[in-house]
Every structure is written in C-alpha cells, then in structure tokens.
C-alpha cells in the first residue's frame, strides 16, 4: 500500500507512477465526497501556512478551501507581508514556521528556494509553482483527462503548444512519461524543454511504453492528439522585454479551431489558467494593442467551445490539492 505520510511535494520526478495514481484516486474520492456533501474534516486540529512570492487565484484558493474542508486552520502570507527573503533567510523562516504549522505551501521563483524550505521546515512542504515546476497543477490536469477518457489514459497523446520550456510544460512532460501517455512539445526550437530533462523523461517513458516528441510542425504535432494543452506565452517573473520575441515566435502555435480540427474529434482543450485569451484582461489588452494582435495563446472560439474543459480543470485544483495535503499530513 502507498503511504505519502510526511513527504514533501516538490516535483513529480520524486514520485513513482503508483504514488501519482494513488493521489489521483484520492482526489476523485474527495471530489465525490464534496459533491455528495459528505463531511471530511480528517485533519482537524492541524494548521497550514501559504507563502506566496507571486500572485495566485486558483492555487491559493484551492489550498484554503481544501484545508478548511479538511478542518484545518490556514494562514496566507502575501508577497510583502513576511520577513522572508528580506530580513530573514528562507532557512530561518522554515525553522520558525515548522514549529507553528503542520504543513507549508510555497509559490515563488527558484526551485532551490522551495527545496531549502523543505530541507529546514521539519514538516511537509508543497510546491505551489516555481519557475521550474508546477506539480500540483498536473494532478488537476490528469484528473480532468481521466474524467473525459473514462479513467484510461495509457497510450493517449498530450500536445503542449507554444512555450514548451516553461514550468507547466516541463511538469506535463514528466507526468505523461510517468503515466504512460505520449507527450509532444509543439513549439519553435527556442521554446523546447531543456535537453537534459527530455532525455530523463524519455528514459521514464520507455519504461512505461510511451514517447516524448519535440516538433516545430503544428500539423505533425497535433494530428490525432487526445489533449491540446497550452499556457501563457510569458510566465510570471519573466521580464517585460521578452514579450516581443515571444509573440513573434509563438503566434504560429496559437490554439485555434484549425488546430483542434487536427486532433481527434473527442479531443479536449486544457489550459492551467490564467489565460490572456480574453484581451479584456489588463495585460492581455495592453499587449494585444502594443503588438497589433487580437488573440493570444488560444482563440476565444476554442476557449469557449465544448471541447474546452478549462473550468473543470480549475475546479480539480481544489480536489487534487486536498488529496496532496491529506496524503502527506495524515
Ligand atoms: N493555474 C494556477 O496555478 O493558477 P493561479 O496562478 O491562479 O494559482
Ligand atoms: N507558466 C505560468 C503558469 C501560471 C499558473 C506562470 O508561471 O506564470
């Protein structure tokens, strides 16, 4: 039997296929319980703290609601309201918070920061996104795929479009390799995932009977796909100057209805969100005007289509994060 009690959740490379499948199963159970109105205050008396150096809607709220449903107390510390990183090191912060709390969530920049926190906290630390990884996102994405493909994902193909070098794409490549799904990075060579990680994932994929492919050709990449996935072209923490080059390089990889038509008829569209698809967002509108475009990484038409499962995916952040907290704290 799988036990994740006391474990950190920092990147999926540290977890076996069996452990990831266990977390997915647990997530489904929590979702069913929530839907049926069955109380699950299994962690009453425990408290957690959420440290955010970058902004968030889904991840923060998923941890808060998930913790409250489990009966826990929650403290949220925004990017400016603790001493961490300014007056106090991450190591010392970890040693203090570990004495107050039963678990710590961290969203920030360097992966080494969340690892430092984990090495010094003495309680489970969960990675809520770093520049390198976004592991909790993957559980929600895969749960959404399971729900749409009858809980049978082996041999399915996930295509990640556009910035395939970012935290979400790299994490998706890992989870696909671990779960027996083919992964395709469909992007210009400038935005392919780093070669070391590709090599590592190919070795994992070989053990699980699936493949990792990189291509700059949209038709080749998307034909016959089961899942078309994309994310913003510029991630949090990247300098404003990268926008011009990203738009130029990534525009051919926008997810449009022509792209969806290449995929299987039952294919779904996923996006971790937030999305700039709606150029009514402040940044979306500003960048669209500045660079003379009307759509960003995904067309409105695809985003609003029946194939788009992005809000199920967003909801699943909560059920899956609850599963991670429960598995590591119980
Ligand atoms: N997908 C995701 O992590 O969203 P937030 O930035 O809103 O947490
Ligand atoms: N790649 C995006 C994901 C946001 C959830 C970012 O890091 O900003």
TrEMBL record:
GO terms for biological process: citrulline biosynthetic process; L-arginine biosynthetic process via ornithine. It catalyses: carbamoyl phosphate + L-ornithine = L-citrulline + phosphate + H(+). Pfam families: OTCace (PF00185), OTCace_N (PF02729). L-ornithine binds at residues 167, 231, 235-236. InterPro entries: Asp/Orn_carbamoyltranf_P-bd, Asp/Orn_carbamoylTrfase, Asp/Orn_carbamoylTrfase_sf, Asp_carbamoyltransf_Asp/Orn-bd, Orn/put_carbamltrans, OTCase_ArgI. It is found in: Cytoplasm. Gene3D superfamilies: Aspartate/ornithine carbamoyltransferase. Residues 154-327 form the Aspartate/ornithine carbamoyltransferase Asp/Orn-binding domain. Residues 7-147 form the Aspartate/ornithine carbamoyltransferase carbamoyl-P binding domain. GO terms for molecular function: amino acid binding; ornithine carbamoyltransferase activity. It is an enzyme of class 2 (transferase). This is Ornithine carbamoyltransferase. The lineage of its organism: Bacteria, Bacillati, Actinomycetota, Coriobacteriia, Coriobacteriales.
């Amino acid at each position: 039997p799988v036990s994740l009690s006391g474990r950190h959740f920092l990147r999926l490379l540290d977890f076996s296929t069996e452990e990831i499948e266990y977390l997915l199963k647990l997530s489904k159970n929590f979702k069913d319980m929530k839907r049926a109105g069955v109380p699950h205050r299994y962690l009453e008396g425990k408290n957690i703290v959420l440290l955010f150096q970058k902004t968030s809607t889904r991840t923060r709220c998923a941890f808060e609601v998930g913790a409250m449903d489990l009966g826990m107390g929650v403290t949220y510390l925004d990017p400016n309201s603790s001493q961490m990183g300014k007056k106090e090191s991450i190591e010392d912060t970890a040693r203090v918070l570990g004495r107050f709390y039963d678990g710590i969530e961290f969203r920030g920049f360097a992966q080494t920061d969340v690892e430092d926190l984990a090495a010094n906290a003495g309680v489970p630390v969960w990675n809520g996104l770093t520049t390198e990884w976004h592991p909790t996102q993957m559980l929600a994405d895969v749960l959404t795929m399971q729900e749409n493909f009858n809980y049978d994902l082996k041999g399915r193909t996930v295509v990640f479009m556009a910035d395939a070098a970012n935290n979400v794409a790299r994490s998706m490549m890992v989870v696909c390799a671990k779960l027996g799904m083919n992964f395709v990075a469909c992007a210009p060579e400038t935005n392919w995932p780093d070669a070391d990680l590709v090599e590592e994932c190919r070795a994992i994929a070989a053990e699980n009977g699936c493949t990792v492919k990189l291509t700059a050709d949209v038709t080749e990449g998307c034909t016959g796909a089961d899942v078309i996935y994309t994310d913003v072209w510029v991630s949090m923490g990247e300098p404003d100057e990268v926008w011009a080059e990203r738009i130029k390089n990534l525009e051919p990889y926008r997810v449009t209805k022509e792209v969806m038509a290449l995929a299987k008829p039952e294919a779904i569209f996923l996006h971790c969100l937030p999305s700039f698809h709606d150029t009514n967002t402040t940044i979306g509108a500003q960048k669209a005007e500045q660079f003379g475009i009307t759509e960003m990484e995904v067309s409105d038409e695809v985003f609003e289509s029946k194939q788009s499962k992005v809000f199920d995916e967003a909801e699943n952040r909560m059920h899956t994060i609850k599963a991670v907290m429960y598995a590591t704290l119980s």
